[in-house]
Structures are given as structure tokens and as C-alpha cells.
Specification:
Helix content is about 35%, strand content about 15%. It is an alpha/beta fold. It has two domains: about 190 residues, DHBP synthase (Alpha-Beta Complex); about 80 residues, Threonylcarbamoyl-AMP synthase, C-terminal domain (Rossmann fold), CATH 3.40.50. Helix 1 crosses helix 6. The protein is globular. Bound molecules: threonylcarbamoyladenylate (TXA) and magnesium ion.
């Protein structure tokens, strides 16, 4: 892996794109300080140019050089959760250019914990702009094979399946503390740790594509159903559907994936399961809705978006 990491860092330095594993999902990386490299990144993803990307670093020290104001809460969060599945939005420093911030006055910063991501970021020794390694609007990739399936990338580092399975928690610290995207690190955990109220984004919050209604979506239309409606829908639609559920497979449906009743295990498998069901060529994907408890917030957020 060492020589591959060295090669990947060279590709980045030369302005190329490298897909790499993180503990959340795979990222598609480019040198965050090169306008040409980032332009190539947007083109590969099919992503609109005004959507900001997250810049990744090996350490908090590097990350904070891209910010001009570091509130005490940000330092505390960095100490507690970095490296890890947390992204912080901070007021940008001159090092964070318009082409990574989408022209906004803030920048998204993250220090991933995956050992391969860490090795790459240390070897590259700079900021790596990395959106999730999928085409814009599609579900994220959690294996190297997912990346190769849908993107044309010069080099892919394979670090095995992603452990968390859904994208990082995004917290905006440009004015107070606001949760822009739920993830493995929950609002409750952050509130308890910081002893502050975490706001929900409002109309003054920065734009974030994860906030678009239909995002993280399979191509097959998906329908999110309360558990008691699943059976009737299956009876009505028969084998035209694929099903993602907690309950045991129903013999009327060929493409049925049974999911863990525990949110971390569920999140870990979610995108691979959606990709598999999406590939089954059915008319609709029926998704049995998880419970309405706070531990399911992040998974529910992605399911709701998948169902448009
Ligand atoms: O787990 C993750 O965060 C993965 C891995 C690869 O690190 N990355 C990821 O990137 O999910 P992406 O680009 O697919 O989603 C990043 C989200 C987008 O919704 C983007 O708009 C938002 O972060 N974002 C980035 N910078 C921002 C900023 N300055 N203000 C508000 N939102 C921002
Ligand atoms: Mg994404």
C-alpha cells in the first residue's frame, strides 16, 4: 500500500484525480489549491460549480490554516472528534479559494480517520478537495468497486468497505453551532459534549447540496413506507418491486434485502444495498421505514432523500 499511496500523492500533485477510502464513504480527491485540478473534479462528478466541496487534511493543524476564525467550539470538536466522521464549516482564510468554497465565505474542513486516507493526506501534505466518489445526486460509494463502476478516475486506492457507510456529520460554526447534515456523530452527542444547543439550518445557512431534496438517490424510484403498509404494497405490486426491509424476505419478491435493526450496522450497508436493488431492474424500491427515534436520524435523512 505504501507505494500506491506515494503514487496517489504524485497523481494529486500533477493535478490528477484519486479516489480514496475514508471511514464514511469513498472520496474523489483533487489538490484543493489547484483551480485546474478542482475543475477536473467537478467535471468528473457532473457537479454544478457553485457547490462547495469539503477539504481534507491529515491533522487539525493543517485544516485550521484554511480558516480565519476558529471558535472555541471548533477547537473542542476537533480535539474530540478528529480524526473522524465530522466536517466543520468555518469562515475561510485566503488559502481556501473560491473554487472549493463555491464562492461562499466559508469552507468545509474534515480530518478523516481511515488509515489509507491518513497516509495519503500525510504524504500529499496539503488540502485535498474531496466530494463523495459518485456522480452528482447518486448514492455515495462505499467500496472501490462502486467507484470504478461509475467514475472515470486515474487512480483508485482500495481500503476495503467503508466502516460508517454514510457521509460525515456537517456542523456549521460560522455563527453559533448548526447541524447541516446528520451523520454517525449525532446532534445529541455534540450538544452533550459542547453543552450548547445545536441549531437546525435556516434560510441564512450556507448552501449545501446534501440539503437538496432529491440527493443520495438511486435511479429506480424509491418509496419509504411505514412497516404496517409494506405487506399490502407487496401484495399489490408483486415482483415489480425490490424491497429493503427489517422483516424476513417475502416469497413473492425476488429482490429483497434484509437490514440490521441497529442504526450503525444499517448505515454501513445502506448504499451497497441501494445499489444492488437499483441494479435489479425493478419498477420501484420499497423501503421499510426505521423507527422515529433520534438514533435513526442520519439513516432516515438519507432514506428520505433516496425516496425524493
Ligand atoms: O463523509 C464525507 O463528508 C465525504 C467523504 C469523502 O469525506 N464527503 C462528502 O462530500 O460527502 P460531498 O461533497 O458529497 O458532500 C459535502 C457536503 C455538500 O453537501 C456540500 O455542499 C457541503 O458539504 N459543504 C461543503 N462546504 C460547505 C460550506 N462551506 N458550507 C456549507 N456546506 C458545505
Ligand atoms: Mg455527495
Amino acid at each position: 500500500m505504501n507505494s500506491e499511496v506515494r503514487h496517489a500523492a504524485q497523481v494529486l500533485r500533477a493535478g490528477g484525480l484519486v479516489a480514496f477510502p475514508t471511514e464514511t464513504v469513498y472520496g474523489l480527491g483533487a489538490n484543493a489549491s489547484s483551480a485546474e485540478a478542482v475543475a477536473r473534479l467537478y467535471a468528473a462528478k457532473g457537479r454544478p460549480a457553485d457547490h462547495p466541496v469539503i477539504v481534507h487534511f491529515a491533522s487539525a493543524q493543517g485544516a485550521f490554516e484554511f480558516a480565519r476564525e476558529i471558535p472555541a467550539e471548533a477547537r473542542k470538536l476537533a480535539e474530540r472528534f478528529w480524526p473522524g466522521p465530522l466536517t466543520m464549516v468555518l469562515k475561510r482564510s485566503p488559502k481556501a479559494k473560491d473554487f472549493v468554497t463555491g464562492g461562499q465565505d466559508s469552507v468545509g474542513l474534515r480530518v478523516p480517520s481511515h488509515p489509507v486516507a491518513q497516509a495519503l493526506l500525510r504524504e500529499f501534505d496539503g488540502g485535498v478537495a474531496a466530494p463523495s466518489a459518485n456522480r452528482f445526486g447518486n448514492v455515495s460509494a462505499t467500496t472501490a468497486a462502486h467507484v470504478v463502476e461509475e467514475l472515470d478516475v486515474e487512480f483508485v486506492l482500495d481500503g476495503g468497505p467503508s466502516e460508517v457507510g454514510i457521509e460525515s456529520t456537517i456542523v456549521d460554526l460560522t455563527s453559533g453551532v448548526a447541524l447541516l447534515r446528520p451523520g454517525r456523530i449525532s446532534r445529541e452527542e455534540i450538544e452533550k459534549f459542547l453543552q450548547v444547543k445545536v441549531k437546525s439550518p435556516d434560510s441564512s445557512s450556507p448552501r449545501h447540496s446534501g440539503g437538496l431534496e432529491r440527493h443520495y438517490a438511486p435511479k429506480t424510484p424509491a418509496l419509504l413506507l411505514p412497516p404496517h403498509e409494506l405487506d399490502a404494497e407487496v401484495a399489490k405490486r408483486g415482483d415489480t418491486v425490490a424491497v429493503l426491509a427489517f422483516s424476513k424476505p417475502d416469497e413473492r419478491v425476488d429482490n429483497w434485502i434484509r437490514m440490521p435493526r441497529e442504526p450503525h450496522g444499517y448505515a454501513q450497508r445502506l448504499y451497497a444495498a441501494l445499489r444492488e436493488l437499483d441494479g435489479a431492474g425493478c419498477e420501484t424500491i420499497l423501503i421499510e421505514s426505521p423507527p422515529d427515534t433520534t438514533e435513526w436520524t442520519a439513516v432516515k435523512d438519507r432514506l428520505t432523500r433516496a425516496a425524493g
